Amino acid sequence: MFKKKKNYLKQIYKMDTETNTFIIEVSLENYKEIFNGWDPSPIKRRELDPDLLHFMNQCSSDIPLSFPLELQFYLPKELYDEEKENLTRVGIKNNFAFIAHFIGKEIGQINKSLFSFWFIKNGVIVHNKNFIFSDSI
Q: Which of 55, 79, 61 is nearest to 9 (CA)?
């Protein structure tokens, strides 16, 4: 079944057979399309465009976690700018690092809540057992 899914995904996504990496391709008209136009931050700290992020999330959710992903952006050749490309690369990496940081923080808060609920649940059970024992004496 896993092989069937991989073959199906190869019909939708390009794959680098040497590295066994699925490629998410994004065509752009200019560099600005990558980032949120409402975010006034410098490119290195700017949020990704919400539609682009949604598209990338949708694509990445199709592909099993056991496969690495690669993003490929296509721009018209006449717009190529090495400095903008380097800044954009840094901005994209920073954005995903920022998202990962907050997801990690959220997971930590969920784990803390789970531990608290577990402690309360077990504390109540111990309390009830103590109560039952003291009641039966």
A: 61
